[in-house]
């Protein structure tokens, strides 16, 4: 079944807005024209895609099945147009990249700054999150590159083998935390304190668990679990919590005198970071430019 892109754009606009009127305004067309476009798409599919209600438009089961494919088709069409126009010097291309928080705080801004200075017509879209969010975004083509901790990426994603670097995670607390007054502080001394951490199943949680397990120690007293880096930093710097963070993530807080690692032997651990891409297919040209910059940066860091 072959779809017309105009129909796909119309379908996605209604899904996004939830209303025929709002979708027509967003597309700058009349409601009757939009209705005719959707009716032709429904005739082609052979089933209704929306249920019409007084309060808006709701997807039918067939519409729900079409939605992820329609979103991907429109995104691929836009990326193809941007890439061709960028190559011809007619428009800007867009780098779509996702990163875990520690990379989004340090390595990625440096790479983007360098790329956009060399290619000033490029734009950048960034999402930040833990691995499951980035993997879903990569597979759904919301992003073209994901920067995260090296891991088994699955069937649809592969690491970029020549783009790897390292950093360390460590146990952190505020500069005013009472534990800093103790002499000969040990890692075991921190476990009964109130901890704030990324949730179970995320890479930071599992990394801490592995580090403690190697030393024969249990997981600490985790009082708060959150995926919000802002919340984690606030809990640690202002509310007396202990945390576990990659060093680049709290670099600015360290310089501001808010957060620092605890002076404990064995309370840190190295990890390997890498770029990921979808298996097969061609990486869009804007993403290639960012990847080339990351390769140069990470090669220098690995030496």
Summary tags:
303 residues, alpha/beta, D-Maltodextrin-Binding Protein, domain 2, 7-stranded mixed β-sheet, two-stranded antiparallel ribbon, 46% helix
Architecture overview:
With 303 residues, this protein is of the alpha/beta class. It folds into 3 domains: 73 residues, Orthogonal Bundle (Arc Repressor Mutant, subunit A), CATH 1.10.10; 110 residues, 3-Layer(aba) Sandwich (D-Maltodextrin-Binding Protein, domain 2), CATH 3.40.190.10; 105 residues, D-Maltodextrin-Binding Protein, domain 2 (3-Layer(aba) Sandwich). The chain contains 12 helices and 11 strands. The strands form 3 sheets. Strands 3, 4, 5, 6, 9, 10 and 11 form a 7-stranded mixed β-sheet that branches. A two-stranded antiparallel sheet has the order 1-2. α9 links the parallel β7 and β8. α1 crosses α3 and α6 packs across α12. The longest helix is centred in the N-terminal third of the chain and has 27 residues. It is elongated. 29% of the residues are buried.
